[in-house]
Structures are given as C-alpha cells and as structure tokens.
Design brief:
This protein is an all-alpha fold. The chain has one domain. Helices cover about 90% and strands about 0% of the residues. The longest helix has 23 residues. The protein is elongated.
Length: about 70
C-alpha cells in the first residue's frame, strides 16, 4: 500500500509542478492549462517514475498471490 501512495503522491506532485510552471510562463486559460499539464505530467511520470511504478506493480502482484 505504501508504494501505491508514494507513486500517487509523485504523480500529483508532477502535475502540480507542471501546472504551476505553465501558469507562470503565461498560460492562463484554465481548460488548456489543465489539459497541457495533464499531458506533460503524464509523459514526465512515464519517464521519471518508472522505478516507483515497477515497485508498485510488484507489490500488487505479491498481494494478489496471497
């Protein structure tokens, strides 16, 4: 369960940072700010959080097996 929380918090953190940076550079339209932040943070998390994702996946598989 801890690995799930770490991964989720990391994803939310990446989203918040991306949102803040885009807002600071001048993107103030709320719809596009959310959409672009979601896409960029998703790509970043795919690259940056692969280790946490693997740990979470192993933990889930271990819990399913018993």
């Amino acid at each position: 369960m801890r690995s799930f929380l770490v991964y989720t918090a990391s994803r939310l953190g990446l989203f918040a940072v991306t949102l803040g940076v885009l807002y600071l550079i001048g993107l103030h339209n709320v719809f596009w700010l959310l959409v672009i932040s979601f896409v960029i943070s998703g790509i970043a998390s795919y690259v940056l959080l692969s280790k946490q994702r693997d740990v979470m996946s192993e933990q889930i598989n271990k819990n399913r097996r018993g």
